[in-house]
Amino acid sequence: MIPGSMIPGSMIPGSMIPDRMIEVLEAATANTVQDIGRTGFAPIGVGRSGAMDPVALQVANMLLGNATGAAAIEIQVFPFAVRFTTDTAFAITGADSEPRLDGVPLPPWWAAPARAGQVLRLSPPRDGARSYLAVAGGIDVPAVLGSRSTHLRSAFGGFHGRALEHGDMLPIGPAAQPAMTLGAAAPERPVGPVLTVQALPAAEHDAFPQSAREAFWSAEWRITAQSNRHGYRLSGPELGGGDGFNIRSTPILPGVVQVPPGGAPIVQMSDANSAGGYPKIATVIGADLPLLGQARLGSRVRFAKTNYEAALAAEQAVRAYLARVQRTIGLFRRNGAPG
Amino acid sequence: MRISPLGTTALLFEAPGPAALASQERIWALATEAETWPEIREAVPGMNSLMLSFVHPPRQLAPMEARLRDAWGNGQPLQQQGRVIDLPVVYGGESGPHLADVVAHTRLSVDEVVELHAAPVYPVYALGSHPGYCYLGGMDPRLTTPRRRVPVMRIPGGAVSIGGSQTGVSASDGPSGWNTIGSTSMCFFDPARSPPALLQPGDAIRFHVERVIR
Predict the structure, then answer these.
(1) Were both Cys, which of A23, A135, A236, A285 would link to A311 (CB 3.0–4.6 Å)?
(2) pTM listed for this prediction
(3) Interface size between A and B, measured as CB pairs under 8 A
């Protein structure tokens, strides 16, 4: 068989060399190509999309010398497996899905070289919800409206605008750095039965009855099964008073917590609409949104009221962590990784 | 007027008074000015509202809020003369599952709802929600029906719906809290097209009654 002949439409004309690819061997539904997200098109109704845990995405890219916002595979349904059709390097971050390369286990938040033909398998993680598989050079699908993130609703971006399926061949871009084995320190994140995320009061917060406000900030909310990359629908006490509003639709962003008249709040996540008309009680701060992106269906979350200054400080801490990781990786790459 | 933060990512400006074309024209003008400010990444008009997202979150919000108030106070309406597109609508039946809810809430008959809905030329105030979706002004206030208590997980593209005092047409399948009263077919968005969105603020939609299913 001619090399590459089984890769439809991806040959360089006249060439016998197959493109650099990874092949999806095993995929349930809902795993997609995501990068750092899409900005600039909200005025025509296009939301941000992008990784639910952008910190994990960025570290995976740093480990490979990619642009930090490059496209990777976001895996939220397991097991998942790919075969490399070329010698390359890959990194796995986010939820620890016990990656095995041809059966050999790898640590979490780790990058390693892969040879053509090797198979990487990910298992359901014990903690966390989403793993990121990045490859050296990034997943090289065409950028649509400035991003490679999959926009499922309008079926563009990512791999043909859809979730990955068995047999998909994903193109890989040219690697910027030589393949290397190295790891990164995962960010220190809270552990425990109830995740606490910080949030700022939003536009209609003060217009809710006091009882609803108190319930919102004090309750332990459960993330229901009707939650996805679009939004997390929460169950808990019914927040009364939300039906007293007939507000106009305003632009919104991931992190905004809307309360429909039924009284069950919805946290907008990466695939959130760019506008909404339910009253906004709060906005989860950017620093804590990745924690929510790793929260599992059925788990519990609490909202802690914070202020703008504290939210800025929390974001500064995330940036400092990323800068530290980047610096450490740079040292390893110059001096050679130990071990 | 209300200015409130959306986390540290953006400020939301909401104009006083009801949504009306004159007010929306000032929103468009404010957006045009604010997107030239170097601190601003996106200026996104909504219904009688404007979101400004930051390149970097400012240390303090007060100066930006003051600047917004000034620009709103000094702003002149930006009139946009757009085109009008005609959309045939099948009201009711399977494609209008919530028509009965609108009838029940408004205490109008099916015919009255359809007649009032298809009468105006609806100016596009803003795009948002999902790609290519148009927020329209000009709905007869008698049709006002609250958003659904629990949003529907999936309504199809082409769905014509009412949410509060607003009406619109879904550009693609997706969740919605609005009441679907009919359907039409039109490609509102294609990322390969330039521009990707069929309509822009200042354009307008006219609905034609193709059929009413009772």
Answers:
(1) A285
(2) 0.92
(3) 180
